[in-house]
Amino acid sequence: MRASAFSRRGATALEFTLAGIPLMFILFSIFEGARGMWTYEMMSYAVREGTRYASMHGKDCASPNSCQITVGQIASYIQAAGPLLSSSTTLTLTPSTGSATTGTISSLASNSTIWPSSTANAPGQTVKIAASYPFQTILAIFWTGSGPPLNDSKTFTLRASSAEAIQY
């Protein structure tokens, strides 16, 4: 009886190695995938809300015209709608005519330029806001050939954009 019990020693460790480690990797993958999807949805929502906010503050939104908005107000509105977006999130604000304004949320928050400008501020003209977010994942350390775990290979760029016509 003792010889039989002695021959089974180590079976639990072997079973854990064969089943437990892949199971933990699958759980990490599910959590990281869900976190990435949640981050993308939050960023997409924030960009949609920022575009809606900009489209409601056109040339004729109030009389007298006191409700024009600045680039900083839009960036702050997007930051408030997506509170977990990092300050390194890049925003690009594109009016229907003229040049685009690009920068990180933190750099645009202090920009006091009226946006869109008076030439691209009429009802019916389109405003577009795009964002890119550097999403970092821990799963990259498991990929073969990705190099040392501290390099930039574990960063994915998530992108979202929204366009809407100015309403007033």
Shape: rod-shaped
Cα distance, first to last residue? Answer: 88 Å
Strand order of the largest sheet: 3-2-5-6
The class by helix and strand makeup works out as: alpha+beta
Number of helices: 4
Report the sheet with the most strands, covering strand number, pairing sense and barrel closure.
Answer: 4 strands, antiparallel
Average pLDDT, rounded to a whole number, is: 85
- Strand runs, count: 6
> Could you list the spans in which at least 5 consecutive residues all have pLDDT below 50?
none
Radius of gyration: 25 Å
Tell me the fraction of residues in β-strands, as a range. Answer: 15-25%
Summarize this, please?
The chain is of the alpha+beta class and 168 residues long.
Topology of this protein?
Blueprint (H helix, E strand, L loop, with lengths): L1 H6 L3 H45 L13 E2 H11 L8 E5 L6 E4 H4 L5 E2 L10 E11 L18 E11 L3
Antiparallel strand pairs: 1-4, 2-3, 2-5, 5-6
Helix pairs in contact: 2-3
